[in-house]
Write a structure and sequence with these properties.
Elements: E1 92-93, E2 107-108, E3 117-121, E4 126-136, E5 144-146, H1 153-157, E6 163-166, E7 175-184, E8 196-197, E9 201-202, E10 220-222, E11 230-232, H2 233-245, E12 250-252, E13 256-258, H3 281-298, E14 302-303, E15 312-313
Parallel strand pairs: 1-2
Antiparallel strand pairs: 3-4, 3-8, 4-7, 5-6, 6-7, 9-10, 10-11, 12-13, 14-15
Length: about 325
């Protein structure tokens, strides 16, 4: 039944198309409603635009900015500015929303800033928030009181910068050098299980823009250049893959096979190759292969030309004939 403005609908009308101004009763099903209508609790599969008020029985509703959602609304897509109630389920939420404790399967962007450190976990095979842990360098016990807290990554990563008083039975209150390590928060591991901390991946508390896509997000990659340029992790992955394809990485004697800030800043190479684990298994294997080849070539070595080999090796002495130690060709 197709009904235009002015008609009144009874409870048994089904598959009805209704325009602005009609009054709908509780039994109307599969109704398309525009701005201004009032919906009763029995309306099902309703498409509602800005300004409508929704009652508790509305199901599978698409709601735009400004609507108020009641606890019965299900499978709701909500954009920036909406307030969500405790029963909203399977909700996609962007920056600025307030989420209550019962929101389920929620994707939240640009708001997760409570973690200070991030690690790449080999067990989870992904980026995870990290927990900083400390132990005695001598007995490996965690019963140690620090003389001071770490102020920066150098304090954490370089030995001998911080000491403490170890309270274990073995050390018995003696002064000891402390050892810092990181654990993954994504799974329960063994006590001494560690994960590689990614020092350039930081929470974006100042909401700085990515130098590539101009979006804000968190966490981000912060390059060690003077201006501390920021790149989001998606753009970082794309940047790395493009430079891998072009063989555009730089071999540096201090940091290895690395990439500089995409803006072109000097002294901006990524200082730890573990960051390239973020590219995924296949691309990281390519990275390691290219890095090995580059190191061999820059240090006077050669690559085996045999089909299916390609091994790199350094020459121990000058010779006109060389045998590959891998394939013996």
């Amino acid at each position: 039944m197709s009904i235009r403005k002015g008609e009144k609908l009874t409870g048994g009308d089904i598959n009805t198309s209704v325009r602005k101004g009609e009054k709908l009763t509780g039994g109307d099903i599969n109704i398309s409603v525009r701005k201004g209508e009032k919906l009763t609790p029995g309306d099902i599969n309703t498409s509602v635009r800005k300004g409508e008020k929704l009652t508790g029985g509305d199901i599978n509703t698409s709601v735009r900015k400004g609507e108020k959602l009641t606890p019965g609304d299900t499978i709701t897509s909500v954009r920036k500015g909406e307030k969500l109630t405790g029963s909203d389920t399977n909700t996609s939420v962007r920056q600025g929303e307030k989420l209550t404790g019962s929101d389920i399967n929620t994707s939240v962007r640009k708001g997760e800033l409570r973690y200070q450190y991030f690690v790449f976990c080999k067990e989870c095979q992904c980026l995870q928030p990290g927990k900083l842990r400390v132990s005695c360098q001598s007995c490996k016990s965690g019963y140690i009181i620090l003389y001071r807290d770490p102020d920066n990554f150098d304090d954490v990563q370089q030995r001998g910068r911080i000491n403490g008083e170890c309270k274990s039975e073995q050390c018995n209150g003696q002064q000891r050098e402390v050892e810092f390590y990181f654990k993954c928060t994504g799974h329960q591991g063994e006590e001494r299980e560690t994960a590689a901390v990614l020092k350039h991946v930081r929470p974006n508390r100042k909401h700085r823009l990515c130098v590539v896509c101009s979006e804000t997000g968190s966490p981000v990659m912060v390059f060690p250049c003077e201006r501390r340029h920021v790149i989001c992790l998606d753009c970082f992955k794309s940047y790395c893959v493009v430079r891998l394809n072009d063989r555009g990485f730089t071999e540096n004697e201090n940091v290895g096979y690395s990439l500089p800030c995409p803006v072109g800043c000097p002294n901006s190479l990524i200082e730890d190759p573990h960051h390239f684990c973020l590219l995924g298994v296949d691309q990281y294997e390519r990275y390691k292969s290219f890095a090995t080849e580059e190191y061999v070539l820059q240090n006077g070595g050669v690559l085996c030309p045999a089909v299916g080999c390609g091994s790199g090796f350094l020459l121990t002495e000058a010779s006109r004939k060389v045998t590959c130690p891998t394939c013996q060709v």
